[in-house]
């Protein structure tokens, strides 16, 4: 389940390493994967704001997993490094209250991904 995968990802803390530079496209994929994980977690916990979006328990999880694999290949980071990037992105989205602002664009990205 996306919630348990994302929760495990948040618990892993990679040692600080060099700053990873992602392409603009990969940065957008990372942001949307993190947003889907946040919304899916909210949906699983009956959060009214999260429930306004389509169910992301299956497609959101698949997008997240595929994105993390793609980012590992593109960046050369290992699982711990990618997990840290996803965790940092999720924390930033929550701190800046951006999740619901980017969801419409992320849903378009999900549709175009074929997932």
Radius of gyration: 13 Å
Please give the largest β-sheet. none
Q: Tally the beta strands.
A: 0
User: How many domains, as an integer?
Assistant: 1
Plain-language structure description:
The chain is mostly helical and 115 residues long. The chain has one domain. Helices cover 70% and strands 0% of the residues. It has 5 helices and no strands. Helix 2 crosses helix 5. The longest helix has 21 residues. The radius of gyration is 13 Å and the shape is globular. About 8% of the residues have low confidence.
Q: Topology, please?
A:
Layout: H1 2-11, H2 24-44, H3 59-75, H4 79-95, H5 99-113
Helix pairs in contact: 2-3, 2-4, 2-5
In short:
This protein has 115 residues and is mostly helical. It has five helices and no strands. The protein has one domain.
Notable characteristics:
115 residues, mainly alpha, 5 helices
